[in-house]
Design brief:
Blueprint: H1 4-13, E1 21-24, H2 33-48, E2 52-56, E3 58-60, E4 70-73, E5 76-77, H3 83-93, E6 94-95, E7 102-108, E8 115-122, E9 130-131, E10 137-140, E11 143-146, H4 149-156, E12 164-171, H5 174-179, E13 185-194, E14 204-209, H6 211-214, E15 217-219, E16 226-231, E17 233-240, E18 243-251, E19 259-268, H7 270-273, E20 277-283, E21 288-294
Parallel strand pairs: 1-2
Antiparallel strand pairs: 2-8, 3-4, 5-8, 6-9, 7-8, 10-11, 12-13, 13-19, 14-16, 14-20, 15-19, 17-18, 20-21
Length: 300
Amino acid sequence: MWTLEKIEQHINDGIEENIHLDYKGAGSIAKSGEKKKEISKDVSAFANSDGGVIIYGVREFDETGKTHLPEKIDPIDANEFSKEWLEQIINSTISPTIPKVLITPIQIGNKEDNQVIYVVEIPKSNTAHQMNDKRYYRRYNFQSIAMEDWEIKDIINRLSKTQVDLHFTYLPPKSFLEKHPDMPVIGIDVWAYNSGNKVIKYLDCYITGNADTAKNINKPYVNGDFEKYYSNIIEREATIGDDTFVISSEREVILPNTSRKMGHIEISNLFIQEESTIKFQLSTEDNVKFIEYKGKEIIK
């Protein structure tokens, strides 16, 4: 959930823009044709990529070397640019309409002044979305760029392939960790989420890292360059006397819009302080996805 405190924490921590996050000052929202085009271009680019968040009302630094870092809150006049106006721009200029786009207005200062930040959360889509300029866009580094023909076809084919994403649950809870990332030990349950429309029958999850990462992982025990394996295999056991035997194993399917716990890791606070890197490879029967987290990203 996005709040003013969370946005201020992003600014204080210097959270840089990335493929899933973009900051826009108040000047990015205007009634000119070009500004409306930029809004739709950026929103459709996130949907065509991996989803993400655009924060309208936070200005970036102008100075060299800081151009993608948040500088300060730069609120929007909601009397002139309402949430409904922004929704209408997004819905009327992108085809097909992107489902489940969430716009959260966050009040700044006195309610009577009606100054706000708009947090726009855009899901990853299962098809390609076209702007009314007849082009398709995607995220690349910090920009929204036009897509190649093969990229458009690849996105449209998402519906014909399994889609899997990662999400985590934490001990202590995430809301506590965002304020206290220096906890000595952080427990993380790793979940695979079926974000597509097809049943996942086979899922293999490989977690890898180097020796510097290994020394900041408490559980499971790893040493040097490591690889840990998890899957959706269930083993059925039988006990005879004092001995337990695996009598069969099978894959537990993962239905669309459901999750399965893949494993558990525990990291020390040095993982965050030293910006350790951990990588995940998720392989299904017809798709492979690679995800990397560095330092604090794993609790974001």
